[in-house]
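User: Teach me something about this protein's shape.
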Amino acid sequence: MDSINPNSGSILGGNQVTITGNNFVGSPTITFDSTPATNVVVVNSTTITATVPASGATGAVNVGISIPGGGSDTLNNGYTYSGPVINSITPNSGSILGGYEVTISGDYFSTNASSYKIDIDNTGSTINNYEGLLVLDTQSMINDGFVQNNCGDIRIKNTDGTTDLNYYIESGVTPQQLIYGTNYLN
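Assistant: First, the predicted structure itself:
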């Protein structure tokens, strides 16, 4: 084996890769750190396509090939499994009154919304849909002492691991104050 393309993806697996090399024949077994790939197809003697299996951890793994009655080869650290990556949060700030929608965009998110946990300063929030849309009740989180009214971190957790991106809670509402006294000028 000479190369694998793409050479990285989610630990959920499922993406198709193209492996290039020489002398590919028959029905080879392709493994990613000892876990067999699926849908292995020998396109020609120099190209194989396969579907990457899921992994239990992030990081680089060896990619192996074994041809029955033939030989075997290993591409050391040939594929890298990645956890979720946050690219942006829109909007990235909001009022402490909460109750608004935040869109989180990124890569390698699970397609199973129930596997997500979104934390703001380690306080859980509910996801309204798989695309990362969530409504935050930041006021309750502040009132309960879970978040400060000046900043916070959003942390997305799923079966892929965790990823962080700063999220700021701004435009705080100061409680109305009553001042009692005499001789005030209007």
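Now, about its shape. The longest strand covers residues 72-82. Residues 3-82 form a domain with the Immunoglobulin-like fold (CATH 2.60.40.10). If you'd like, I can walk through any region in more detail.
User: That's plenty for now, thanks!
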